């Protein structure tokens, strides 16, 4: 959580979690109530200030997805509050989740211990004292573990597109393309997710890999760069990439064939690109507008 704090400072389900070892001044364990639906920001209930003597975690609900892999990518939504007064320090639910590598060095020892052995879909409560190496102040944190690969129903692709196979961890491998490349943008869902539809101007969190049509050589891959990436579907992004992801749903895996005429050429790149993109999260303009109005 040190990196989380550094960044901050520079099914309906509720649970009441009593954390043994996190004692108040009178010796009674502090009571922290976590409520809120899965997929939405948690609401924390407690009476500050909390006196926390050592880092302790509790599973609010377990995950039903893949088990987290030590040293592998992990994607987190979180809410971090100061236990002294209950003030918000940092949260990700109103924008995009944060990717990490599951190591003590990357997420801190306290959060690493809390996440180890957990599965995608878990919600975890973590209490950390001010004396921890993680934090300069006592803190209350709720973490949701999100998927790092697409989920949903498989879709049969049209003929003529490169074959895609998935590794054990979900990383796509794209077969060498055959024949002449298309002369316009091709958008082909491979997995249809059940999440929100991506809007124009959204900020998305994705995993992606890509090859060049001419020889099947690698173009770029988040899978080989530590995990998911977030970016705005606007300036600085391949136009074909932005156009291809709009109106797709979160959870989907989408193949994009982007010829130079559709915005695939960047810098010295002149080849048609084949990208396979897993859409893991999206912060839509309509969501942000609703939050501001609320």
Q: Keyphrases for this structure?
A:
294 residues, mainly beta, Chitinase A, domain 3, 2 domains, 7-stranded antiparallel beta sheet, 6-stranded antiparallel beta sheet, 18 strands, disordered N terminus
Percent of residues in helices: 10-25%
What is the string of helix and strand elements? HEEEEEEEHHEEEEEEEEEHEEH
Regions with little confidence, pLDDT below 50 for 5+ residues: 1-29
- Whole-angstrom Rg: 21 Å
Distance between the termini: 30 Å
Main beta sheet: strand number and arrangement? Answer: 7 strands, antiparallel
Overall geometry: elongated
Helix tally?
5
Describe the 3D structure:
- Its EC number is 5.2.1.8.
- Residues 1-20 form the signal peptide.
- This is Peptidyl-prolyl cis-trans isomerase.
- With 294 residues, the chain is mainly β.
- The protein has two domains: 2-146, Chitinase A, domain 3 (Roll); 153-286, Chitinase A, domain 3, CATH 3.10.50.
- It has five helices and 18 strands.
- The protein has helices at 2-9, 104-107, 109-115, 239-245, 285-293, and strands spanning 15-18, 31-35, 43-45, 56-61, 73-82, 88-91, 98-101, 123-128, 139-146, 153-154, 164-166, 172-174, 186-192, 203-212, 218-221, 229-232, 253-258, 273-283.
- The strands form four sheets. Strands 10, 13, 14, 15, 16, 17 and 18 form a seven-stranded antiparallel β-sheet that branches. Strands 4, 5, 6, 7, 8 and 9 form a six-stranded antiparallel β-sheet that branches. The protein has a three-stranded antiparallel β-sheet with strand order 1-2-3, with no helix packed on it.
- A hairpin with a 5-residue loop joins strand 11 and strand 12 (172-174).
- The two termini are 30 Å apart.
- Mean pLDDT is 87; it is low at 1-29.
